[in-house]
Design goal:
- The chain has 585 residues and is of the alpha/beta class.
- The chain folds into 2 domains: 6-325, ABC transporter transmembrane region fold (Up-down Bundle); 347-583, P-loop containing nucleotide triphosphate hydrolases (Rossmann fold, 3-Layer(aba) Sandwich), CATH 3.40.50.
- The chain contains 20 helices and 14 strands.
- The strands form 4 sheets. It has a 6-stranded mixed beta sheet with strand order 8-11-12-5-13-14, with helices on both faces. The protein has a 4-stranded antiparallel beta sheet with strand order 4-3-6-7, with no helix packed on it.
- β13 (550-555) and β14 (558-563) form a beta hairpin.
- α5 packs antiparallel against α7.
- The protein is elongated and about 120 Å long.
- The relative contact order is 0.08.
Length: 585
């Protein structure tokens, strides 16, 4: 989609911004009133100055009493103007930052309910760039717009009014030259919006690459990928430099272009006013007043041209934010969705079809019936659909046809939160947040006591390494575990599930990062934990699933073999081949 079309169009984006502004109309109204007061009093000052000049007639002919009286009035006007300007700025700041806060909150709330296919299809850095960098750019442009736009427009209108009250003919010269400024600003504005939109997109690409490289620095270094990464960064940086240069070029010529037109206005007023003053049409004080007005009249055009440039950047960034906010959220819970309670653990997949890409089928007519308390292992080559089945069980993705039931109830008829509360999940990829060890363990059960936490840690064999940490359970770790080893992070994730012990478990390569000795202990702990609980175990190491009640062998999205370990070995089929390949001498 082009920068100026559809949802991303300037007009559409501006209307969306106005929708957010409407909530703070009181601040907006007060800001406009204060802007009007500021401008009116600012424009009144040249009249007072002109009167003072006219009271200074010649050497020894000065009306000091009159001058002093006007100076007193000028002091009051200046004080009131300053107060009005301060109130206006306070209103503008509150309005701009609250609007930005609302937009950022809404964007973050949308991220929380976006379907996983959106997160999987966009780089994390690009999404972060929209919520952080683009919102900051939008904030700067919006604040500048509020601060200068209203004042500038009112100044132009007010100045014209005051000039008309002094001399209509000279004002006519001003009005005739003015449209040139608008034409110049409008032409440049169109160019700058397009360039700023491209700049914002390219900046998102750069943020995405940086985030990816920092997050995977060990892999980059291990495979000596530094030079390729640097080349890719240089290419994006070069494109960002070029589009930024174009955006800055177009935005930078706005001010000098409008200044040129404004100088024509000033020159026209000076020449015409001088002729009228020579003929006695206006006094010297009035001419001085008019020249001041000409300056004040043209000054807002310079400011507004700068504001327009900033607004182009702000609107381009806002368009990207609104694209995120307007993304289709995940299908909400149905109106009659119930809370899943007292779960026994029966799970049925009936004629399930699913694919990530419409024209490439992954799972077709998948059927599975699991009794409460059964341990089901899922094995098969990479890409056969093992993790996809887990995604469907948890409703991270919805089936495209067929249905999945828990205790004979379609999972689309229950709330997502209650469904997921009944699953304990340990994945190959660990996830830990910044905080203490305790904070990371009690995520699923915040009210847990210290005794319960320690018992869960002992059951998962994490207690011994936690005790060796500087502050034990109160040790603060950084994002994604900080300096903890992969195995230690995995143990904490297992402890998290041990603490809650829901009626159903999903273990997706749960011991892949743990040493053999600890794995044996963990397997014993898992065996205890799985007693009476429906468990789904995804594993590549077939030695870990020998005790499973049922082993499903998957290939190309279908179950090709099913049975326990001994039965499948006896069949001498695909499972037997996989098993023997792992233990061949």
């Amino acid at each position: 989609m082009a920068a100026g079309e559809g949802k991303g169009s300037q007009k559409a984006t501006l209307l969306k911004v106005l929708h957010y502004i409407r909530k703070y109309w009181i601040y907006l109204a007060l800001s406009i009133v204060m802007a009007a007061v500021t401008v009116t009093l600012t424009l009144y000052l040249p009249i007072l100055t002109g009167k003072v000049i006219d009271l200074i007639l010649d050497k020894g002919m000065v009306d000091f009493a009159g001058v002093f009286q006007i100076l007193q009035k000028m002091a009051v006007v200046i004080a009131v103007t300053a107060a009005a300007q301060w109130i206006m700025n306070v209103c503008n700041n509150k309005m701009a930052y609250r609007i930005v806060q609302d937009i950022r909150n809404e964007a973050f709330r949308k991220i929380e309910i976006l379907p996983l296919k959106y997160i999987d299809g966009h780089s994390y850095g690009e999404v972060v760039s929209r919520v952080i960098t683009d919102v900051d750019q939008f904030s700067d442009g919006l604040l500048m717009g509020f601060t200068q736009f209203f004042t500038g427009v009112i100044t132009i209108l007010g100045t014209l009014g005051f000039m008309l009250s002094v001399n209509v003919a000279i004002t006519g010269v001003v009005v005739l030259i003015t449209p040139l400024s608008f034409l110049v600003a409008a032409f440049i504005a169109k160019k700058t919006y397009t360039m700023f939109h491209v700049q914002s997109q390219t900046r998102g690409e750069q943020t995405a690459l940086i985030e990816e490289m920092i997050g995977n620095q060990k892999v980059v270094q291990a495979f000596s990928h530094e030079d390729e990464a640097l080349e890719e960064f240089d290419e994006i940086n070069d494109r960002l430099g070029k589009c930024s240069l174009k955006a800055i070029f177009y935005s930078s010529i706005t001010n000098p272009s409008t200044r040129f037109v404004n100088n024509l206005v000033y020159a026209g007023v000076a020449v015409t006013g001088a002729v009228y003053a020579i003929k006695g049409g206006i006094s010297v004080g009035q001419l001085s007043c008019f020249l001041t007005y000409a300056n004040q009249y043209t000054k807002p055009f310079n400011e507004i041209s700068g504001v327009v440039t900033e607004l182009q950047n702000a609107l381009a960034c806002a368009a990207r934010i609104f694209e995120l906010i307007e993304e289709e959220p995940q299908v909400p819970d149905s109106e009659g969705a119930v809370v899943l309670e007292n779960v026994e653990g029966r799970v049925d997949l009936q004629h399930v079809d699913f694919s990530y890409v419409p024209d490439k089928r992954l799972i077709t007519d998948f059927n599975l019936s699991v009794r409460a308390g059964q341990r089901v292992a899922i094995v098969g080559p990479t890409g056969c659909g093992k993790t996809t089945v887990i995604n469907l069980l948890m409703r991270f993705y919805d089936v495209q046809s067929g249905r999945i039931c828990v205790d004979d109830r379609d999972i689309r008829d229950v709330t997502r939160s209650s469904l997921r509360d009944n699953y304990g999940m340990v994945l190959q990829e660990t996830w830990l947040k910044s905080g203490t060890i305790r904070d990371n363990i009690v995520m699923g059960k915040p009210e847990a006591t210290q005794e319960e936490i320690v018992a869960a840690a002992k059951a998962s064999h994490a207690h011994s390494f936690i005790k060796r940490l500087p502050q034990g359970y109160d040790t603060v770790i950084g994002e994604d575990g900080g300096s903890l080893s992969q195995g230690q992070k995995q143990l904490l994730c297992i402890t998290r599930v041990m603490l809650c012990l829901p009626p159903m478990l999903i273990l997706d390569e749960a011991t892949s990062s743990i040493d053999t000795r600890t794995e044996i202990r963990i397997q014993k702990a898992f065996a205890t934990m799985m007693q009476g609980r429906t468990s789904f175990i995804v594993a590549h190491r077939l030695s870990t699933i020998r005790e499973a009640d049922v082993i499903l062998v998957m290939k190309d999205g279908n179950i090709i073999e099913q049975g326990n370990h001994e039965t499948l070995l006896a069949q001498n089929g695909f499972y037997a081949t996989l098993y023997q390949s792992q233990f061949a001498v």
